[in-house]
């Protein structure tokens, strides 16, 4: 399993936890995921880095507002799409 596949699986798992109302467990998993994913974007183009920054900002906004369903959507759809497009190149 490649790193991007692992990250995608972790993002989807995190999203599932948020949807199940397990926000504390999901928040911890998301923190670990973000810490692991973040360095992989350092070597990407400026456009990809800006997309990552935007998605990350939206995720943190949702977390701050305790909007777990929107956060789950960002993890499962936006982040997975960004990982698929940028890390598999």
List the SSEs and their pairings.
Layout: H1 3-19, H2 23-37, H3 46-64, H4 68-87
Helix pairs in contact: 1-2, 1-4, 3-4
Description of the structure:
With 89 residues, the protein is mostly helical. The chain has one domain. The protein has 4 helices and no strands. It has helices at residues 3-19, 23-37, 46-64, 68-87.
The helix content is over 70%
Would you tell me the structural class of the helices and strands? mainly alpha
Poorly predicted regions = none
Number of strands: 0
Helix tally?
4
Strand content: under 5%
Identify the notable features of this structure and list them briefly.
89 residues; mainly alpha; 4 helices; 0% strand; globular
Write a compact overview of the structure shown.
By secondary structure, this protein is mostly helical.
